[in-house]
Amino acid sequence: MRVSVLHILFIMLLMVPFLLQVDTQAKLYFHDDFEKDTVGNEPKKWEIGFDGETKAEVIADPKDASNKVLATSNNPSNASRHDVGGSIYVVGEDSWGDYVAEWDMMFPDDFYMGVVFRFQDGEKFYLSDRRQGGRDYHFYKRQGGWALVKGGAVENKPEVWYRAQLTLAGDKFTFKLKDRKDTTTFDNIDPATEGEDGSFKTGRFGNYGLVYIDNLFIGDSPDDFVLPVEPQNKLSTTWGVIKDTY
Length: 246
What we know:
Layout: H1 5-25, E1 28-32, E2 47-50, E3 57-61, E4 64-71, E5 88-91, E6 99-106, E7 113-121, E8 124-130, E9 137-142, E10 146-150, E11 161-169, E12 172-179, E13 193-196, E14 204-208, E15 212-219, H2 239-243
């Protein structure tokens, strides 16, 4: 059967709304690997959410001096948490609600440290917190003091690179952690912490205490962790491709 050019154009026009809908449903909100930052400086894409006495700075990866990572404080661990005067650095928008975040994370020593999410100000946020001892990993809420949202556990050690995933879906939060060299997909990793609380619906993502961070992706889903084409003919890539190079 012969198909006219007009017929083809008509079909293509009918598909435009569908394609636009798919595009708007999938989105990469944020990515940072710190390679465009200068060692010794604060990270360009981050800003201070709580202005304390510490400064985040880009450093050489303790495991690979040719790689750059973020050290979220220039003070020792016991002087870096915001409840003892440390700063909190954040990314994103106040309107961020549901998303999936994945990042590389190293604990420089055996202390309390982690990331904040749905951060609104220094007294309104959630905390995914590694506890001292290398096993307990809890969700807390900061609102006029600390309140435990839900306890959890995952074995971990200082000075090891891990891959972390935080999923926010309405009032439910899920945190997972695995060795960065582990090729098991997060779908097949048991949660370290699962919690539920409805106090804060939106907010930004950031650090808590002294922790090393690299290769941070935040999007609607892991399928959205796609980088745009860059100069010098670099191809689009995903975290699944990146991690295969380790």
